[in-house]
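Schema walk-through. Below, the input block comes first and the output block second. Nothing else is stored per chain. Lengths vary across the set, and this one has 322 residues.
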Amino acid sequence: MDNFWEFREWIGTKPSVNVEEETKFYHGVEGIKVQLIDHSVNPYKSIFTMATSTWGGVWKTNKWESTSPEARLYVVLAVLNRKCLPNAMESISFTFEIAGPSRSAFDQIARARLGTIISSMGWRDNCHSDIGFRVPEGIWIDEERRNRFIKGRLGDKQDYIDDLKTGQSNWQDARAVLPISACHRWSMAMNYMALTGFMSQRLMFSEQADTVATAWLMRERIKEKFPLLASYLRPSSDWAKRCLEHVGDEMAQSFGNLFRCSGRWPCELASEKYSFNTACSDRNVIMRQLSIYIPEGSEDLPNPNVKLENLEDYDRRLFNDS
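--- output ---
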C-alpha cells in the first residue's frame, strides 16, 4: 500500500481526528463492555499436559490421547484445587477488550503485574471530543449532585475542545483537563494463574463499582466458554468464608479501612472503625445495571470432586476431545 495514512488506517493505528463533539453520561456501571477476544483452544488439555509432564520416560508423550476423559478431569481438578504444582495454570491465557469503565477504574485494574499484559487507549494520540463520563451511583441518585457533576464535566469538556484549537501540541496539552471519570478503553491478556489472583481481589465489593463490575464481566465471558474455570474465579473472602475486606491489626487498618464492609460475609470489626459508613460498591446495583447474576458468597462454589457427567456441555466436550 503506497499511501502512508491509508496504511495506518488499514492496520488500525491512525489517530481519531475530527471527532464529532458529543458528551454522554453513564449511570453507575451501565454500558460497560467486556469481550473475550482470544483464548486457549482447549485449556484443560494444556493444564493436563503440563501437570503430568514430570512422570514417564523420554518417549512418553501426548498422554492426553491415552488417558480417559474421567482421568483427565481428575488431573485438572487436582491443579485447580492446588493439590499439585499450580504452575500448569500459567500455560493458558485469555485476551480481553474492555470499553467504558472510568479512567480511575483502569488505574486500579492496571496494577496487575505478573502474568498480565495491558495495552491502553492513548489520551494524547487521539481526539477525545466525543468522550463520555461515568457518573457514580451515589451522585446519580442525588439530583442536585448529579446536575452539578454534569455541569462540571461539560465545562471540562468545553475547555478540552477549546484547547484543541490552540496549536500543534493540542492533544497532549488538552488531555490535562479531562477528569478520571472519563470513559476509557483497553485490552489485557492474563494467564489463568494471574487471573485467579486478580479476581480474588477485584471481585470483592471493596473496590469502586466499575472496577468490580469489569471483573465480574470478565468472569462472565470466561463462564460462557469454560464454566469449570470460571467457577474457580471467586473473591478471596468466598474461599475464606469470612470478610477479608478489612483484616489485620491496628497498624494494618491505619493504611486504609475507609469504607464499611459490603456484608457479603460477617465482619469482625466494629462499625466505628470505618471512615465512611457505606460500602464501596453494591452487588444488587451492579447486577441490575449489568443484567447479570452474581452468586452469593456461599453459592455455587466449585465442587472439588465434580464428575464428568455433571459438567456443562461445553466443558464435557473438551474433556472428551481427542
